[in-house]
Write a structure and sequence with these properties.
alpha+beta, Jelly Rolls, 2 domains, 8-stranded antiparallel β-sheet, 32% helix
């Protein structure tokens, strides 16, 4: 009996290791204990974002929602220098979002590519289907001026004043936007999509700037260190928010748009961002599509062997069978919770309470199968 118990205990332990690898691969975790730093640049205006630090609106971003809902489109404009070209997630450069799956818009980096997720009445709540991926845009060797425009008909992206690409795949307006989301720079609201690099300017408009206006804004900024000339020389018609990053001190980045109420932003370290919210999403897009159904079945099946092996390891103990069943079930659920917590900090995975429930069902089924087999023999 002792040998059988040791055998099943060993097998269940090995299977936990297998699940650990399967559920956390490729181990691209950005944990809040990692060093975070953000600082003002000394030689020019701008900020350098490192680690898991980021910038988050400290006042309500509802002004932005109201402006976009009643406007004729959108322009997202910024000057940046990315730190390196292997950032992914996509790493959030600018985002107006709550978490990894709920946003109004996001501009992110995926390697050398720029990812544009813009929520409209014709997309899902994540701003995908379609998602716009503009290839080979980013360069880590020098500052870049990037402007993304959308006029409810066509999306365009300009790099250093030149039209780089356009798309008519997106349609719909912004009437389904959520006004409660914060405006973010350098990270997601959940703190686990960090972008590292230097940022010199962010401007948002509630209309699509023309090519001539994009060129005007590009030329309004000095290319020598990007110190800039402030709003002077820039297109101001339709502007909602403007961050010049010209204070060089303090913890708050001022909105220089001149449009009240101002949306001030607060510098936050990685742990401060993460502590804002930890929310596992229980039923995101839960509509029993084939993808959802497959995901449910996989999460159940993966944990059946764990319940089977772990309960088999307890069969030869003298404890009450009910206590043994509950103990193994708690083991499965607790292990699942730990995996979902770590997945929360992954760049490619999404933590979900639904997964924990399905994993618990799988564990319970494994227990029942082993218990039936034991009784029948």
């Amino acid at each position: 009996m002792r040998e059988q118990r040791v055998k099943y205990f060993t097998l269940s332990t090995l299977y936990l290791v297998v699940l650990f690898v399967l559920l956390l691969s490729p181990f691209d975790l950005h944990l809040p204990i990692l060093k975070s730093e953000i600082q003002w640049l000394e030689q020019s205006r701008g900020m350098e974002i490192r680690g898991t630090a980021g910038i988050r609106s400290s006042s309500s971003a509802e002004k932005l929602y109201n402006a976009m809902k009643t406007g004729s489109g959108i322009t997202l404009e910024f000057w940046i220098t990315t730190k390196h070209l292997n950032q992914k997630g996509p790493a959030r450069i600018i985002s107006y979002s709550a978490n990894k799956v709920r946003r109004n818009f996001t501009i992110g980096q995926e390697g050398r590519d720029l990812i544009v997720r813009l929520r409209t009445t014709k997309t899902n709540l994540n701003g995908k289907n379609p998602e716009w991926r503009v290839e080979d845009v980013l360069d880590s060797n020098h500052p870049q001026h990037i402007a993304v425009t959308y006029d409810f008909f066509k999306e365009k992206i300009y790099v250093d004043g030149q039209l780089r690409d356009s798309s008519t795949a997106l349609s719909g307006d912004f009437s389904n936007w959520n006004p409660t989301f914060p405006l973010l720079i350098g990270n997601e609201g959940t703190g686990n999509r960090p972008w590292v690099g230097k940022i010199f300017l962010v401007a948002l408009y509630n209309r699509a700037l023309s090519e001539q206006e994009v060129v005007q804004n590009y030329r309004a900024e000095s290319l020598k260190g990007i110190p800039g000339n402030g709003p002077s020389g820039r297109v101001m018609d339709g502007i909602t928010t403007l961050y010049l990053f010209d204070q060089r001190k303090g913890e708050v980045i001022m909105d220089k748009s001149g449009v009240k109420p101002f949306i001030q932003t607060q510098i936050l370290t990685g742990p401060e961002i993460t502590n804002q919210v930890f929310l596992m999403h229980p039923f995101q897009n839960f509509n029993l599509s084939w993808k959802q159904l497959t995901d449910i079945l996989i999460n159940i099946v993966l944990f059946i062997p764990l319940g089977y092996l772990a309960y088999a390891a307890t069969v030869f103990a003298n404890n009450d069978s009910g206590i043994k069943m509950v103990s193994v079930l708690i083991l499965g659920v607790f292990f699942s919770l730990c995996m979902e917590y770590l997945q929360y900090y992954s760049l490619v995975r999404i933590s979900s309470l639904m997964d924990v429930i399905n994993n618990g069902i799988g564990t319970f089924l494994g227990i029942i199968i082993q218990r039936f087999r034991t009784v029948s023999t």
